[in-house]
Write a structure and sequence with these properties.
Strand content: over 45%
Helix content: under 10%
Largest sheet: 22 strands, antiparallel, barrel
Structural class: mainly beta
Number of helices: 5
Number of strands: 41
CATH topology: Maltoporin, Chain A
CATH class: Mainly Beta
Length: 749
Amino acid sequence: MIKNSTKVLFVAVMASGGASPLSAQAQNTLALEEIIVTARKREESIQDVPVSVTALSAAELQRSSLRDLRDITAYVPNLLVNKVTALQGGASIAIRGVSYQEIDKSLDPGIGVLLDEVYLGTNAGQILENFDLERLEVLRGPQGTLFGKNTIGGAIAVFRTAPTKELGGKVQGTLGDFNREDIRGLLNLPMTENGGIKLWGSRLKNDGYIKNTTFNDWVGGQNFSNVGATIAYDITEDFDVSFTYERTQDKSDVGAFANFNKYFDEYPYSNGTADAPADLAGLLPLAAGLGDTGFRQFDTGSDEDHNSQNHRNDGDTNQDYSNLILNYDFGDWEVKSITGYVDRNEHALTEYDANHFEFLSVYADTDYQQFSQELRLNGSVGDVEMTSGLYYWYSDYDTHSITYDLFEWLAGLPDGSVGTISQHGETESYAAFTSADWAVTDKITLSAGVRYTYEEKTLEPVGQQFFLPDGTPLQPPVYAVHADENWDKWSPRLGAQYSFTDNVMTYVSYSEGFKSGGFFGRITSGSNVRKFNPEDVSTYEIGLKSTWLDQRLRANAAIFSSDYTNKQEEIIVSDPDGNVDTVVVNASDATMDGAEIEISAALYEGLTGFIQGGYLDAAYDEFLIDGIPGVPTDGSSLDMRNAPEYTFGTGLNYVHSIFGHSQMAYDVTYNWRDSYQTIFDNDPIGETDAAGFWNANIDFNYKEMLTVSVYGRNLGDERFYRAVAIPPVTTFGSWNEPRNYGVTVTYNF
């Protein structure tokens, strides 16, 4: 496949350059902006990096239709970013078929998200807001050599602006549909001629776009605020330091779920009568005396089904983020130290049955901390560019959850009885890495690198315990265990690149990455305390990067083939006692083949455009599961979750002067992705339909001081849902954002 695809992609890219309608006369006046990235832990032009990477500049990120991390999917092939509704700021990210959608802290993400070079170890809080960003980079494929564990699918690196060390700032306000009221502000202050401080704050608020029919109110809204500061100081010409602290509070709605209950919609539950199969017999007490339960036929074509019937859910999350960065230059070498710390406290009451009576309500209280230290050396020896470093990671969490209501129905316990589950987990990791790029000739460069990681994990879960309304325990905990394990992994990378000209180069590479093993902690049965090993991805890639027509046309392409081994599968199971557990097993091997192409062009004075597309063939080679009742032993024919076959995006941006001192800007993007599956056993309710989305904004900029932006998102009002099943209790999910409009005003000073 790789050999044939290489020919196709090379011809396509060459043809795109030769067939451009741009005139020779205009070639000398237009050029695309050079893009600088740090995909190899040093600053380089994106066209010189033998890595599949997409970067968005500050100018692109300032467009008012780009609200947060979910909106970058229009620009990046083979990328999905969705919000985890049960988790404030939680992200479900998939790159090239590698995905993650679990909220429990005992399972690590497969896509690395880094904020100012600090890796965020949990998907909670990864839906980062788009404000005051310098650039954003999306690296596709395993990044284990330089970025470490849990980057098997890729990495998303977000960089905020540095203090300018001059007096200035901006204030930004937004009004929009669903009572959106956002206010943001930033202030740069000089301290001395060598230092400065940047202060910022935001308050983002809206009513949400899901109508709760139980309370006749709008839910799913945002209530987010943050304040922060960065101090930067040049101690000498060669030595500089910066420190950042940010405090975030998120009281946004959680659990604005729609009712997708296939387990009930096929059976008439009304006025205490029911006709249900034997496997639902334990749930029959729900119907007695309740009248209309709210279980109804699910119809994706009905506007009514875009609503929620949940009881009210509450969430309150506080996060402290800090980093300390030291840079020291000596000759051709640079030493960089990056120290990061995150302290996150999550409190949420979430009802998962998606119906108008209280049935499956869970209160979860989680404290999470992480500390990381990276020491990195960059430099050159003759024709060899080198990057080496040491890395340390420590994280721990404590989670205590209480389940209400469920046991009144399933176990016949008195009203107010609860079940509790607690867990404590720790991770400690050490790594050393090195990478070298040798310019053998003016045209040939060889690359090699390796990372060694040693990791220890501990889990101390305390199993399910029932309490009567007065607090009396019904029995000791079902189990209380201590589980620990350690792993060590080598993550190599090899590559070669050849430059046909100064503007056209091709590369081949082999890279590996791994996602941490561990123990899944959110379980009710001691028999389900089981170890799972790290999962691994090995990727072969061939790419072409090219620039044409005096920097007016940029065309990049890649094909890849990835071997996925020991894939961690999250499987929801139930036992004879009515307990529901998520079990994580190393169940499968898979192959992911695909191709990507990205083309950007300066089409006319002030007019630029882009087009990108991705193809992905992700399939299990083997999917064997042993010893889990009710789960098929052979799932080799199942579709992988969160792996659409095709993705596509395109856009145009036009800027022109007005009145001799101001500008008008018009921006429109369209992105489409194929259907994909979200449920492990490929239940039809878990198939998310193919969908395409139009976003646009019109900006008026007055003397680079005042900008008024009118935006429209999801202009075609395309709706889709993502479903989750907890058999045999409930199936629930959430709908995407409908069409919405607004106005943003930004004042720069």
